[in-house]
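Our consortium's second objective concerns turning raw sequence data into structural hypotheses that experimental partners can test. To show how far this objective has progressed, the report includes one record in full. It was chosen at random from the queue rather than selected for favorable results. The single chain below, 133 residues long, was entered without modification.
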Amino acid sequence: MQILPVRLSPLSDLRAALEAVLQEHAVGAGFVMQAIGSLSVVQLRMAGMPQPLELREDLEILTLAGSLSPDGAHLHISVADAQGRVMGGHLCPGSIVRTTAEVLVALLPDHHFSREDDAETGFKELAVRTVRR
């Protein structure tokens, strides 16, 4: 495992930037361990809902965690507004960094993650494979 601290600048799409980390480092698997920072827009998909909820305001990132694979990320985030109200859910594309996002990523060079159809759940779920070197 290789630990990679990442700092994202204002106007970065948080999810897209994290999905790009694997390609930039030629690794097929990773995890976001934690993050702090702020967003001006967050796209949250709540459990069981088909479409994300968009919040456009100054938001603090409280937590961010999930898996990174070459064919997509599965990330959960919690954010707080100026009154301290907390919301969370699946992080969707279009979530925009306001001032900074400081993210700790674990790269897993001995593994390859993919998202594959799962007959039991009806969703694309994580498939883990060991890479032989």
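The partners drew two points from this record. DSSP finds one helix and eight strands in the chain. Strands lie at 2-8, 30-45, 53-69, 72-80, 86-91, 96-107, 111-117, 124-130. Both points have been shared with the crystallography group to help prioritize constructs.
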